[in-house]
Amino acid sequence: MKRFITLLFFVFLCVGLQAQPFTGDSLYYLRPIDTMEVYNDVASGQILFDHYIAPGQTLYGVTKFYGLSLDDIYHLNPKLRAKYEPGDKARIAIPRQAIRAVPAPDSLAWFVPVYYRMGKGETLFGLYKRTLQLPNDEQLRALNPELNPERMSANQVLAIGYMKLDGIPKELQGEIEDPYVRRNRGLRELWRVRTEGKKMISQNGKAAWTKKGDPNKWMVLHRTAPINSLIEIEDPRSRKTIYARVMARIPDQVTDPNVIVVVSPLLVKAFGVRDRHFYVRTRHF
């Protein structure tokens, strides 16, 4: 009986390991048996692929395989900056030039098919013209003989081409980091230095914005954070994290208790905000 229970546990363990959505293995970051399914990220304008880190893989190795830098990976996956482990998802930007219409006929084993998952409201025209930037829909129709443009829906998966298994050359990758995030890099580095080992105060709530203030500086008003200290502001909608200086207290005219921070015009541009109020997560010390 004990032997049977041990065997049963081993079987369940193996099944659990196989169920993990790893991409590649300890030797290869991408294998022919892996399913490469990409999607369009509206916030960044990038075509993205979810790479699930396999045992034996390193985040540095993943970045090199896809022609990215660690800063690129952290921009797309802020949570991986702290730590990562096998099974964690790393969102990877896939340049359009890396997707071929057909694989080289003499080396089929060195290519993996690439599929695209349609988003809500996407059309065939939008897919080939804007997302893939193709001259026409011939490539998509050739790869999907039964494609009916009149019956396309969200989450529909289409074959869009092939990618080589030896990775993506760095020169094919374009600018990954958002220009505002890049411009904010100095305060981000200062935040890391100042907050190391300190206990953070986290808040979730509304952000309001003002037209006043220097349009070229990262500034906020806050109710309790020390004046001239730094604050971290995350906008879940745009998935951007920006750092700013606390210049003053929120004025009494802002009576809504759910408003936890008032941001300057530069932050409004960085987050792409149109509404007078928007939801944010903040941290300060």
Q: Could you list some keywords that capture this structure?
A:
alpha+beta, Barwin-like endoglucanases, 2 domains, six-stranded mixed barrel, five-stranded mixed β-sheet, 8 helices, 11 strands, globular, LysM, LysM peptidoglycan-binding domain-containing protein, signal
Q: What's the short version?
A:
This protein has 285 residues and is α+β, with helices and mostly antiparallel strands. It has two domains: 2-172, no CATH class; 179-284, RlpA-like domain (Barwin-like endoglucanases, Beta Barrel), CATH 2.40.40.
Structure description:
The strands form two sheets. A six-stranded mixed β-barrel has the order 6-10-7-9-8-11. The chain has a five-stranded mixed β-sheet with strand order 3-2-1-4-5. The chain is of the alpha+beta class and 285 residues long. It has helices spanning 2-19, 59-65, 70-76, 124-131, 138-143, 179-183, 185-195, 265-271; strands at residues 36-41, 46-52, 89-93, 111-117, 157-164, 201-209, 219-222, 230-235, 240-248, 259-263, 277-284. The protein contains eight helices and eleven strands. It is 24% helix and 26% strand. The longest helix is centred in the first third of the chain and has 18 residues, at 2-19. Strand 1 and strand 2 (46-52) form a beta hairpin. The protein has two domains: 2-172, no CATH class; 179-284, Barwin-like endoglucanases (Beta Barrel), CATH 2.40.40.10.
